[in-house]
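Deliverable D4.2, example record:
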Amino acid sequence: MPRVALVFLLLVPLLYGVIYLAANWDPYGRLDQVPVAVVSQDKPATVDGKSVTAGQDFVDSLHRENTFKFIDASPERPLTDSLRPLLPDDHRARDFFRRPGQRTGN
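Output generated by the structure prediction step:
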């Protein structure tokens, strides 16, 4: 019986260490598999006679960087059920860019 207890006393910390190391070995190695919804409702503007599409250019740069698994979303192209909980029902830009402590609403 003491041998069984000794095996468990050695096995539990070993398992804990293996699980801990596996979880923290490369935390940034699989970020390209993390789904992130991108909503761009930016409209092109005309500056000095040229059309400027800053919003679309930014979204394109996100896709080129491939840091995360960016998924384009819009009212015409809704998100899948797995991503829907991550996007607020009312995703107005003024709510995202408010100052801390500032109330939302009208």
